[in-house]
Amino acid sequence: MSDIDSIIDNIYVRNRSQAIELLVNNALGENRVAVILFGGEETSLKISENQYRITGKIDSSTVFELAIKKLKEDGFKTIYAISRHNIITELFKLVQNGSKYGVNIQYIEEKESLGTADSLRLLRGKVKTNFLVVYGDTIFTEVNMDELWNEHIKRKGMTTLLLTTTPTPSKKGVVKIEGTKILDFVQKPKDSDVYLGFSSIFVTQPELLEYQGNSLEEQVFPILAQKGLLNGYLSTSKVVKIHSLPDLKKAEHLVK
Fold first, then answer.
1. pLDDT of 122-167, one tens digit each?
2. What sign does the dihedral 64-27-154-238 (CA atoms) show?
3. Other Cβ atoms within 10 Å of 179 Cβ, number
4. What is the pTM of this model?
5. C-alpha distances in Å from residue 67, one per residue of 58, 97, 107, 151, 221
6. Nearest in space to 175 (alpha carbons), one of 226, 215, 239
7. Range picked from 22-31, 119-128, 243-252 for highest mean pLDDT
8. Fewest CB atoms within 10 Å of the CB: 11, 161, 186, 211?
9. Across-strand partners of 178?
10. Shortest CA distance to 213 belongs to which of 203, 223, 228?
11. Of the candidates 101, 122, 102, which has an alpha carbon nearest to the alpha carbon of residue 37?
12. pLDDT, tens digit, 9 for 90 and up, residues 54-72
């Protein structure tokens, strides 16, 4: 117990429960759970006739394979992939159940969805502890997931968003933040003097799945911010969203 008590500082780690979780997550990181969220209509997620954003190729790997490799490196051995039927079929062709990468991939088919929160709720009953969520059209090979994960464990809150600076706040969810506490979350504001945006990666708790609202960005995150349950972790690491074929070219330097 002395080891546990020694890391309780009453600021970031407030009690033995948090201290134990931090130690367990550090010692048994290979048991972490990650979710690759890629919901929505299949046609809207294509970047060419034969490629979805998540199956777009950079050198010899697809966006999906890069995500699986990175998550495995960062200690995530159980990975859920949420998407529509045809996309899941293509993903399974690429990596099957993930065993060749040393992970266990479980596919969850989305029949329909009204938004990101609606899609994520398909996890209800499947996860019992903190879990990581990454959007499927995101390349995040430079992000230090350990730091993001541990910051979430340390802070009192339900969800911790990865934040990066953005030159185009009107294209992202932007936040007003004080310290690590997000005071306000606004999705794609028409006018904004805030240049700190949500980078489609976050760590959260299963309780998030019980919140009402179709969209994480438009409904759930703003509510969490109002309740003081939304934190931010600022990173200088580059995160690239894949919306088109030229975006794949832009991301080449991240996989060299």
1. 999 999 999 999 999 999 999 999 999 999 998 888 999 999 988 7
2. negative
3. 9
4. 0.86
5. 12, 14, 15, 21, 24
6. 226
7. 119-128
8. 11
9. 181
10. 223
11. 122
12. 999 998 899 999 999 999 9
Euclidean distance between the first and final Cα of the chain, in Å? Answer: 44
SS3 label, residue 138? strand
pLDDT of residue 51 exceeding 80, the answer is yes
**CB-based contacts of 174, cutoff 8 Å, min separation 6:** 166, 185, 186, 189, 192, 194, 195, 196, 197, 198
Cα 2 from Cα 102, distance rounded (Å): 35
Type of residue at 52: Y
Polymer length in residues for the chain: 256
Cα–Cα distance between 216 and 219 in angstroms, integer?
A: 6
Q: Which amino acid is present at 250?
A: K
SS3 177: strand
Pick from 76, 81, 65: nearest CA to 32: 76
Please name the residue that has the structure tokens 């134990």. Answer: 20
Distance of CA 167 to the CA centre of its chain: 21
Mode of pairing for the β-strands spanning 131-135 and 240-241: unpaired
Domain 2-254 has CATH 3.40.50.1460: no
d(CA 74, CA 150): 12
